[in-house]
Predict the structure.
Amino acid sequence: MEKFKTVTSKAAPLDMPNVDTDQIIPKNFLKRVERTGFGQFLFNDWRFNDDGSENKSFVLNQPEHKGARILLARDNFGCGSSREHAPWALLDYGFQVIIAPSFADIFHNNCFQNGILPIRMPAEQVEELFQAVKKDAATEFTVDLEKKTITFAGKSLPFDLAEPMRQKLLLGLDDIGWTLQFDAEIAAHEKQVVAGIRVA
């Protein structure tokens, strides 16, 4: 997992609440065993028509939003089943940051395990970001994880994040990688426990 510090990008506005994981990555595309390759199927049922052609009205197919690495969303993003394929698909497509008023808990945690920064912000601040994109789709946002700020159009908004989660992203570590930092201490503790059992 790559270290996360800052991302500067325009943002794609997905203006709908309760986007569930089956819309993020439909279940019929979950047959792959590797983490890569899911981006082509992201929001498949919304991005494509029944004949396979692009749905021109969907936000990710609009030229001004293509290439965005920041996704703006509404309440309860990532609800539904707990499939980890959802953040895999978002990351593989190119998104590194998702900003929303609220996330489903399991999806929120899965983002951190896969190097995506999910930012919770008050609804009125998220709306401010949506309005900035509506005014000018080329608006660039800089997300600074070290400072915990989002800057755009001469403004700076703070965001909050649990410190352990922030540190894991800054170091590029998932839960397993974080635990392995303490491998020597764990081994020493196990050695003490085994010695204690033998003495007893």
About this structure: The chain has one domain: 6-172. The chain has a mean pLDDT of 91. Strands lie at 6-9, 11-13, 70-72, 97-100, 117-120, 141-144, 149-152, 155-158.
